[in-house]
Amino acid sequence: MTTIKQRLDDLSTSDFTGAIKDIQRGIERETLRVSPNGKISQKEHPKLLGAALTHPYITTDYSEALLELITPPSNDINKTYAQLQDIHHFVTKHIGDEVLWPMSMPCFIEHQDEIPLAYYGESNIGKMKRTYRKGLKNRYGSMMQAIAGIHYNFSLPTTFWLAYQKQQGLTGSLMDFQSEQYMRMVRNIKRYVWVVTYLFGASPAMCRSFLEGKGEALPFETFGKGSVYLPHATSLRMSDLGYTNSEQSALNVEYGCLKEYITKLRQAIRTESLDYKKIGVKIGSDYQQLNHNILQIENELYAPVRPKQVAKSGEKPTDALENRGIMYVELRALDVNPFSPVGISKEQMRVIDVFMLFCLLTEQDQLTADQQAEAEENQDRIVLNGRAESLDLVLNGTTVSRQEWLTNIFAELKSVALWLDKHIGGDQYTLAIDQISGAITDPNKTLSGQLLNTLLKDDLDNGYYALSLADRYKQQNIAHLPSVFKPSFLVQETQTSWQKQQDIEASDTLSFDEFLENYFTYQT
Known about the structure:
CATH class of the domain at 25-173 and 200-345 and 453-519: Alpha Beta
Distance between the termini: 40 Å
Low-confidence stretches: none
Helix content: 40-55%
Number of strands: 14
Largest sheet: 7 strands, antiparallel
Mean pLDDT: 93
Number of helices: 18
Shape: globular
CATH topology of the domain at 25-173 and 200-345 and 453-519: Creatine Kinase, Chain A, domain 2
């Protein structure tokens, strides 16, 4: 068996030194706009933040109140972090007395109808985005859609793939090789995502109002005036309280190769659901969902990781993948870090870089149906009970303790970190792994452990603590001096986004019915 260190020794030529310096990452940070008393905003997306349909850095997710703040791909973690700070500064200055919720689980929401659907204007694509969200509400309810996370987009440059293909002694299509290797990364992220959830899950507690009659089967404990928690939970966001779909679990989406993945996704979008058929697609002239199939569109597939390609205007994600292969991998398993004013830290980014490369280079390659079931079982155990003093997981049918497995994984993560530092210079990757490695033996050093200890020590309500953080971060974000995305630049992007939305609306020639019919004509 080839160890990861041996693999890394083979990747130590000058070709790799140059390529590794151009690893790209981009962040998508979700956060609710809330009123000063912690209630979800009922206001429209502020006009000064631009058109949510077309702004490249500031948009909305499910709700008009759920902002999504985006950094473009960059090979410099400091630059990415600065961009996040600059966007937060700009947003904070243009939302009046509202604040940005600093946690994954939502604020004080009594009923799902308090969560306003996002609006994207009157173009066909804008109507489609809103109709998709209406379908999500009708299928799953709005509460779970108000949960926020961090999406981490990771890619390696063409120079790396050329050198790696050559080092492996392979010839043929570089696009196919790159896609095969990214799918290997995806399979291993699914296998090891529990590590990310254990270290960086940050939602062990939440406001009781979120339950809305759910969660009776879970042994919640209470604290403060209206908060519930699971003593050893890491990420309630990633539990069944979050975004789940029983119909999806029967899909058996396959990750063996890109073609299988695309085929399964398209099949789900074309396969009728008896449950969703009962909702109806159109009542009178009012759409209730885009269709009554298992998935309305690709984005509805809930997964902790997705292979991605940038889609052209009007192009479906599966068509983009089929036409141009995988361009990057999106890790969707990160909770919002409540201890950071921008939801993620530089140290986390470095750990995630190391983790993504570990998933590419580790010996494990296949992910059988049994192994996928094991991976999902491990993730569930970590989500609900990850910080238990002694927790067993399953590895290829054999029981292994969390601590023993983490110890072995961290030895390999350390090898990757040392390799990165050797090629990039400095010791920041190694320091980041060393800094978090205390969590191997001490669950209190995880984000969820730190948060829960803070709450329980002073019997702080989860919601009121979050609101105090939100107020503090508002002041920090306003005081921040922008260095990359200057306010004048973001003002220009805002104006441009409104013009782009107007141009899209003016260019529509089809009715919405005709537009949808054309959109759902899939390549064969």
